[in-house]
Sequence to fold (141 residues):
Amino acid sequence: MTNFTGCTNHRSTQVAFLNPGTVLPEGLPFSEAVRVDDTLYLSGLVGVKPGTMELVSGGIEAESRQTMENIRMTLEAHGASMNDVVKCTVMLADISEWSTFNEIYRTYFTDHYPARSALGANGLALGSRVEVECIAVIDHR
Fold:
C-alpha cells in the first residue's frame, strides 16, 4: 500500500497497485486492479484463458462468458465479489452483439445491476469481441 495525503483535507488515502497474476500474466505495463481505500478499480478485461494472453474460441458468447468469469476471479482475488460492483463500462467490437452480451452479463448479478455504459469500439485488445472494466466498493463493516 502506498499512502497519499491530500493537501486540502489532510486525510491519508491508501493506494495499492495489484498484480497477482490471477487472470492476466505478470509483466504487463498496467495493473490488473488498483485499490484506493475501499474502492477497487479493475482494468479492462477480455475473454482470455486465465494466466495467458490467448482468447477463448467461440465468438461473442464464449468471450463474454470468459470475460465475466475473469472479472469474478479478479474481484475474488482482491476480497470482493460481483455484488460489490457499482459500475461497469462495456466495449463491444460490434454493438449489434449488445443483446447477446446482455444475456450472459445479467447472469452474473443477482442482488442488483451496477450502473453501466456500453459502446461500440474499434480495435479492442487482442482482437477481442468484448472488453469490460469495473469499479467495486468493498465494505469493511
